[in-house]
Amino acid sequence: MMNHNQTELVIEAGKTESQYWKDLLRYKDLFYFLAWRDILVRYKQTFIGIAWALIRPFLTMVVFTAVFGQLAKLPSEGVPYPILVFAAMLPWQFFANALSESSNSLITNANLISKVYFPRLIVPASAVIVSFVDFMVSGIILLALMAWYNFVPSWQILTLPLFIVIAFAAAIGAGLWLSALNVKYRDFRYIVPFIVQFGLYISPVGFSSNIVPDKWRLIYSLNPMVGVIDGFRWAILGGEIQIYWSGFMLSVGLVALLFISGIWYFRKMERSFADVI
């Protein structure tokens, strides 16, 4: 087939895999459209609008501070307990929101997927971007807490973008796995909320991971979000916050595995989406 028109779609036999990644760039406008549409849908018809992205993490921070900081008297690593909690709440909320949104993204866009060709990976990836907007909005609370407690971050805050990239890899990797599985097994619509809720309890959001006994630290780091959260706290809080480097490297390695395997499984299942969905 000859390409006589730049807008004409050409699918050459045996070359779909090599062209797939080029198509991601070719369909970047669709990616922007889906992300912007989801942002509008999320906030347009809500009673309190974008304030919802502030209220939910703030109330969770208040509860965790009361339970772990005031009642359990857990150590705060030399920083005000609300800041300790919120520095972990940011990456956790981003991961949890991205997981919930991306896992349902293919189902909610079933009409689009079943009618036209485009790289399906765009759909869950755009859902993760929407969650990143919530992440940016929630960051306002952290800035307000720092101002309230006169907390000044150290030079380590400059490394924060690196840990944001790691959080992105974890969110996209897990999101690709669950979005592909949700197409074939609709049970995952019930499993994902449980994973998010359970993950909150086993991740060091309300407390510092330093309270975990040394003999269990490496095993605890098998939860990839432990490394992500510890990295955020190290970058934002500095000072007495120390990273358990063995566990951190293990978590980062698992995030990389999750990201690569997520792309592999999504690509493997992608050919059947239009038929199954």
**Total DSSP helices:** 12
- What structural class do the secondary elements suggest? mainly alpha
- Low-confidence residue ranges: 1-5
Helix % is over 70%
- Largest sheet geometry: none
Basic shape: globular
Total strand segments: 0
What is the count of distinct domains?
A: 1
Per DSSP, what share of the residues sits in E-state strands of 2 or more residues? under 5%
What is the CA–CA distance across the termini? Answer: 30 Å
What is the C-alpha radius of gyration, as a whole number of Å? 20 Å
Order of helices and strands: HHHHHHHHHHHH
Average of per-residue pLDDT values: 86
Would you give an account of this structure?
- The chain is mostly helical and 277 residues long.
- It has one domain (25-275).
- Helices cover 71% and strands 0% of the residues.
- The protein has 12 helices and no strands.
- It has helices spanning 16-26, 28-44, 52-71, 81-108, 110-113, 122-148, 160-184, 188-202, 214-220, 224-237, 245-270, 273-276.
- The radius of gyration is 20 Å and the shape is globular.
